[in-house]
């Protein structure tokens, strides 16, 4: 049986150890917390101190940076990037190739369409059609 982890050197010369998540085989860094019922597809990275709640679905090639929080039943489509310290509320859907900046907040049940970019620190709430709601 092969090993269930991989060591990767970051751009600062530090070696980080990632384990393969049982549901999807995505790579989870030491110090990240991923609920066993979450699915993290292969090719995705969850960095240290990130948290992924029950029922979340993380698509192929997604990068979740340190300290990000992904709520229950969130769906993140392939190749999205969730910035450091960002928070995605319960039931939100993040589209293909979306970028959610550092410290940004996406409200529960929001829909962020494909190729959208949310700047660092911005707070976003949408209806289920993706239309922005007044703050």
Structure overview:
Strands 1-2-3-6-9-12-15-18 form an 8-stranded mixed β-sheet, with no helix packed on it. It has no helices and 19 strands. It has a single domain, classed as 3 Solenoid (UDP N-Acetylglucosamine Acyltransferase, domain 1), CATH 2.160.10. With 135 residues, it is an all-beta fold. 0% of the residues lie in helices and 34% in strands.
CATH class: Mainly Beta
CATH architecture field: 3 Solenoid
Approximate strand percentage: 25-35%
Main beta sheet, described? 8 strands, mixed
The mean pLDDT is: 92
Radius of gyration based on Cα positions: 14 Å
Helix-strand layout with pairing:
Blueprint lengths: L4 E5 L5 E6 L6 E3 L3 E2 L4 E2 L4 E2 L4 E2 L4 E2 L4 E2 L4 E2 L4 E2 L4 E2 L4 E2 L4 E2 L4 E2 L4 E2 L4 E2 L4 E2 L4 E2 L11
Parallel strand pairs: 3-6, 4-7, 5-8, 6-9, 7-10, 8-11, 9-12, 10-13, 11-14, 12-15, 13-16, 14-17, 15-18, 16-19
Antiparallel strand pairs: 1-2, 2-3
What is the gist of this entry?
GO terms for molecular function: transferase activity. This is Transferase hexapeptide repeat containing protein. The protein has no helices and 19 strands.
Features:
135 residues, mainly beta, UDP N-Acetylglucosamine Acyltransferase, domain 1, 8-stranded mixed sheet, 6-stranded parallel sheet, globular, Trimer_LpxA-like_sf, Transferase hexapeptide repeat containing protein, transferase, Hexapep, Trans_hexapeptide_repeat
């Amino acid at each position: 049986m092969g090993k269930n982890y991989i060591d990767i050197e970051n751009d600062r010369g530090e070696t980080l150890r990632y384990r393969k998540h049982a549901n999807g085989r995505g790579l989870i860094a030491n110090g990240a917390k991923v609920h066993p019922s979450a699915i993290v597809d292969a090719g995705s990275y969850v960095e240290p101190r990130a948290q992924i709640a029950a029922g979340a679905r993380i698509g192929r090639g997604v990068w979740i940076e340190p300290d990000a929080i992904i709520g229950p039943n969130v769906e993140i489509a392939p190749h999205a990037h969730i910035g450091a310290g960002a928070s995605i509320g319960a039931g939100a859907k993040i589209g293909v190739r979306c970028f959610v900046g550092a410290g940004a907040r996406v409200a529960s049940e929001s829909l962020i369409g494909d190729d959208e970019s949310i700047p660092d620190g911005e707070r976003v709430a949408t209806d289920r059609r993706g239309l922005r709601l007044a703050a």
